[in-house]
Write a structure and sequence with these properties.
The structure is a single chain. The chain has about 800 residues and is of the alpha/beta class. The chain is about 60% helix and about 10% strand. Helix 1 runs antiparallel to helix 4, helix 2 packs parallel to helix 18 and helix 5 packs across helix 6. The two termini are about 40 Å apart.
Length: about 800
Amino acid sequence: MNWRLFSFAVGLASFSTIALELMLTRVLSVTMYYHFAFMVISIAMLGLSVSGVCIYLLPRFFRDRRAPILAAAFMLVFSLLSLWTLSSTLSNPISLTNWRDNLGRLGSLYLSSALTLLSSGFAISLAIASAKERIGQVYAFDLVGAALGCVFVIPTVSAFGGPGALLAAAGVGALSAALFALSAGDQASPKARAALGGVSVIAALLLFFLAAGESDAQRFGAARNPDKFLGRRPVQFEKWNSFSQITVAPAGADDHKWIFIDADAATRLWSGAIAQDGWKAPRRFGEVRVASLVYAIRNQKTALIIGPGGGTDVISALHHGVPRVVGVEVNPIIVNDIVKGEFASFTGNLYRNPKVEVVVDEGRSYIRRSGEEYGSIQATLVDTWAASSSGAFTLSENNIYTVEAFGEFLGRLAPGGVVSVTRWYDATQPKEFLRLLAVAREALEQRGVAPAEVHRHFALASDLERRGTLLLGRDPFTAQEIQTLANKADEGGLRLLYAPHRPTGGQAGAGERLVAHEDGFLASFLRSPSDDDFLGRLPYNAAAVTDDRPFFFYNLRPADLLSIVSRLTSIEINNLGVAILLALLLASIALTIVLVLLPLFIFERKALRSERTRKLRVLGFFLTLGLGFILVEIGFMQTFVLFLGHPIYSLAVVLASLLAASGFGSALSGRLVSRFGLDGVVKRVVGVLAAVMILYAFALTPFFHALLGAPLALRIAIAVVLVFIPGLLMGTLLPTGVRVANELGAGTVSWAWGLNGAASVVGSILAMALAMNVGFTLSLLVGLAVYGVGVLLFPGPAPTAASAR
């Protein structure tokens, strides 16, 4: 067998598998909701685990000599089944309103995805199982290939669209099949190698051809969900990138269109013709009037708008005479391809207005680099419910709704400046809006504002529909400012929910209307002497969230987690991800028991009879490796999001660096074992890893905040170095464990592989649940503690004959 070709084939197989997983999460975010990304990751890990167990339980069929040809066949099947997976994904949208009735659709998607990922799982497991003494080399190619597959996501989605990129990933899988066939050498007949290799090359060319034309031809159908806001509207523009799918569709009125983000979140794109009447047209919508209240009292200095989208807030600022508007939009498609591109003439070149500057960047990173002071900083409904690939691990929460973010916003305001944040407001149960106030209040108190004075910095208003606006002053609001707001709200048909001063005079009855319309619940919170005491009495969690635990939309208390699964028909969309997370946890545990542990117990129980203590310690070691790695991985993914500016950069940089470093660590493991011995390697590696992780836990956050304003290229380079160090260390441990398991027989290896996979399947979901409740820093430390348990369990060198006597 040609081991070099075989190793490259393993790398391509891993490359295509992880790329397809990530592409699938992007398509699912459009056809369904971002929460279903968890399902794909769970399926992939389960497929790898089940395939490994099957290989070890059927050694007569999965012989080492057959490994290259069988791996080639499985990767060819993987690439062809990808067509079914894509078709199933596009044709089985899930409804939120009656999603219990959609279990058949979900089952079809689960089955197609499971068989596809199981096929590649067999190929990769075969390669690792047959590597034996070359495990370091083969595992290194596996991890480096996976790392490159993560990077592959960014350019390919932009070039081919989500469905096309998925087909391209499948094409790479077909190429890996061809390499597997060629690597077989004399272990397979020349005809078999030629036939399998030829078919694989043809399949790869066909898949690449389909990928290149899928954006225009849509042979597999458009990515649509009729229950989403986009619905069945005719699409006038569509483009994908690694952030999201962006579409433009008519709005039913001549003066504006809709820009849709992953078919659901939307922003209006206004006609330039409305400038002739002073940009008054948008003000027929209450949501626009309430979001623009800030400009009634702050319009003399530069306004910074985070997430301007199609430009509604920009137009509001211009309407109120703001001298300069700076918009920070994270998605380049909206700015460059739509507002400045294809629809520039429609908007009257809004983003080329001399008073307007719109940059493509992440809000907090831009503010950190900006030396300017702003009269106002505005964010209107800035969230998309979109899975930016790594949404599978982060629940796609937004780092602008944290205490640290609000502290940075307040720090960038000029004297008297105001932060304006518009969010969803439910007068009967304002959970989300209360948390927004909690975040703002905590940020003020951290800046030295006394709890008794906090309420003077707040003003709240509602559009009498579903939106509410928080006005947060750097300095206390004056009575005159509140009077102006009250008059403006009265004029615009809005409701002033809270103000620190009662308006008098001005428009008739303004003060009386304020008292009548005040939201007593929110007002009580703002005036309460202790936010902890107030929030602690509530049946849900509305406490302020931080960068370490940025789950703004997660409002369940730990005691309520299990009960949510029984309320699937009436669940809030904000907690849909939690319900799916728990359902997947239960399903993963059940499937892992049935498909991994039970077969091992039935067929390999005898393998544990001799040297039971030593073997059980080896198996415990593999459990800790699976769980520890996934805890550290998920902790890093979120920790680096803020530093790099967007979840997709966290995915591409952090996950790729971690996998690549682990690959290099795997390749070095053989040399380390020959120098320090098996037990010596494990103890030294985990000892150094502990020192590094403890340092990271306490130093990363202040380090990141200090460098957040640095250029992106420098931040990426720093992130690569920071992630590479622990990744290199963790990568040495699995090959070391495999060497010990091999000494104890094939039965031990099969148990070890199965338990490692089981820990990864269940651990990926447990890690997310842990992070949601205790934060990512503590999750990293828990991951380190798991590795520490692994050191204690590691059996060390086998007893010699002399010592046995």
